[in-house]
């Protein structure tokens, strides 16, 4: 049985090119307020984490050559605290990206070029893990209004998820096609797949099936896609893999 999760953009979302936000068209100032507040809080948190990490580093230098069991245990505890500080700093950065990713600045982009560059970037790492990457792109693909950096981040999140679903290796296929006034981009993997109860929650912030996962990668991807006026649909079957379809509006005629 194949489970499906679909998220589409709201009828109130803007399709106009340029700067846009997935926040309600009537509340952009409120959204910006919340994003700024989150940014200030996270900045302060990371400052304190930096101070704590520095002191832990200085403390660990006192135990570089532990001679007793007690000293070895102390060094282990310091290192665990250092790892936790780094985890919290990474989580803070991910949350800040999640809060701010609804605001995009779009320009017409050649999707074929963007996807080829992305494939070249990720292929070496995937090959080391026994994962083959295939890419199929039509020559007549129209340009798409994108915030290049944010959209690449969304695709990287999806590729990372596919990679993590294939610990024994496998195949990732990226393909694109033109569908009337839209462009559909698909990322298909031969990984473990997800049961319906997991698939139903994948876009919920902080939900993760991995002990070390932040649960913000896919929610961030969702927000980025929606902010581009698009929608995302996911199909998955345990033991067979997962397919992600992203549909985006093509650039208006005459714009390239």
TrEMBL record:
Keyword Cell wall biogenesis/degradation: no
SMART domains per the UniProt record, alphabetical: HATPase_c
Pfam family, one: HATPase_c
UniProt domain Histidine kinase: residue ranges: 40-252
Chain intervals for the UniProt region annotation (Disordered): 1-20
Highest taxon in the source lineage: Bacteria
Gene3D superfamilies with a match to the protein in the record: 1.10.287.130, Histidine kinase-like ATPase, C-terminal domain
Molecular function GO labels: ATP binding; phosphorelay sensor kinase activity
EC number of this enzyme: 2.7.13.3
Catalytic activity: ATP + protein L-histidine = ADP + protein N-phospho-L-histidine
The protein, known as: histidine kinase
Biological source species: uncultured Planctomycetota bacterium
């Amino acid at each position: 049985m194949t489970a499906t999760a679909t998220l589409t953009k709201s009828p109130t979302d803007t399709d106009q090119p340029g700067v846009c936000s997935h926040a309600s068209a009537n509340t952009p100032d409120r959204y910006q307020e919340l994003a700024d507040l989150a940014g200030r809080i996270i900045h302060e948190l990371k400052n304190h984490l930096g101070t704590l990490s520095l002191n832990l580093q200085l403390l660990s230098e006192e135990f570089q050559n532990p001679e007793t069991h007690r000293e070895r245990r102390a060094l282990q505890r310091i290192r665990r605290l250092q790892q936790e500080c780094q985890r919290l700093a990474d989580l803070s950065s991910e949350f800040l990206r999640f809060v701010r990713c609804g605001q995009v600045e779009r320009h017409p982009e050649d999707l074929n070029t963007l996807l080829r560059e992305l494939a070249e970037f990720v292929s070496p790492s995937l090959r080391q893990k026994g994962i083959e990457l295939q890419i199929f792109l039509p020559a007549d693909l129209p340009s798409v209004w994108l915030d290049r950096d944010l959209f690449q981040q969304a695709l990287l999140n999806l590729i990372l998820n596919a990679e993590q679903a294939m610990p024994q290796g496998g195949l990732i296929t990226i393909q694109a096609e033109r569908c009337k006034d839209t462009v559909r981009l698909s990322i298909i993997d031969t990984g473990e797949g997800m049961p319906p109860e997991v698939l139903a929650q994948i876009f919920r912030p902080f939900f993760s099936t991995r002990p070390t996962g932040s649960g913000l990668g896919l929610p961030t991807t969702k927000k980025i896609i929606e902010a581009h006026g698009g929608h995302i649909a996911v199909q998955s079957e345990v033991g067979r893999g997962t397919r992600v379809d992203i549909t985006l509006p093509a650039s208006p005629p005459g714009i390239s």
